[in-house]
Amino acid sequence: MEPVVDETSVLVDGPWTHRSVGANGNRFHVVEAGAGPLVLFLHGFPEFWWAWHEMLPAVADAGFRAVAVDMRGYGASDKPPRGYDGFTMAADVTGLIRALGEREATIVGAGFGGMVGWAAAAFHPKMVRRLVVLGAAHPLRLRAAIFADPRGQFNAATPTLRFQLPRYEHVLVRDGAAMVGGFLRRWSGPGWKLSAGFDDYVARCQEAMRIPQAAFCALEGYRWAFRSALRLHGYRFVKQMQTPLTTPTLQLHGALDRAVLPRTAQGSGRYCVAPYEWRLLDGVGHYPHLEAPDLVLGEVLRWAKS
User: Fold this and answer.
1) How many Å apart are CA 66 and CA 71, to the nearest integer?
2) Which residues of the chain have pLDDT under 70?
3) Residue 114 and residue 86: Cα distance in Å, rounded?
4) Measured between alpha carbons, how far is residue 119 from residues 13, 61, 175, 271, 297 in Å?
5) What are the pLDDT digits (tens) for 213-226?
6) DSSP characters for 23-37?
7) 125: preceding bond cis by omega (within 30 degrees)
């Protein structure tokens, strides 16, 4: 029998402060460094706040208040059984900005966190000063590509479509959450997989996913995205996401991303009427913040300062 993992496993010491913040009816674990304009980091799947552990002190040193959050259901944040729809998770982000005592923030979102960042900017434009998206297409662009590109994006999305199966969270955490390592290896570029820190990162994500209820919650966002396509709630989400973005947006995408194909993500700019930049990163997969951290850091700081 595998040992029980609790939330203290993600409370890693470093040049930052851990604390809990109440927002949108839930308790969120945030990790904070520095002072200045707020830069809020949103991790993806199957990660937790540790995705940004190298970025936080560097952004703080550049004169910003850098905050990484365990998203709803992950790490040491609350794990409610509901609330994994696009509306609620976008409200989590803006609720956090208010709870941190700020009126606006630069949002940096990776993967699933990038999808939430797109929604937060669309629904609450006055609170998202600037947006940086890594490895995430605009939700409507992803939705269209899954149906229109069966040999491409639909095939790439097949592993996450399996999340619809009942009790699949038990499969995700089987054998020490071996499947988490499988996703990280499948979706990463070759350079990072051969690096010294890759195995440690995999082990940390596997441990965090084994916190009770974390795996169920991690899958619920994907389940909502699929189920909502056939429901009024999803129709309302699509209609609201069609509102053109007025937040200046920087989109960084790995040329080797096998989770969200570059040709899927590249069409996202059509939803922006604000300044928008697209950059394709050679040799990088689905995790640019970990595979090319120096490059991403430079781009994040450039966008946040402009």
Assistant:
1) 15
2) 1-3, 229-233
3) 12
4) 32, 29, 35, 12, 23
5) 999 999 999 998 87
6) ETTEEEEEEEE--SS
7) no
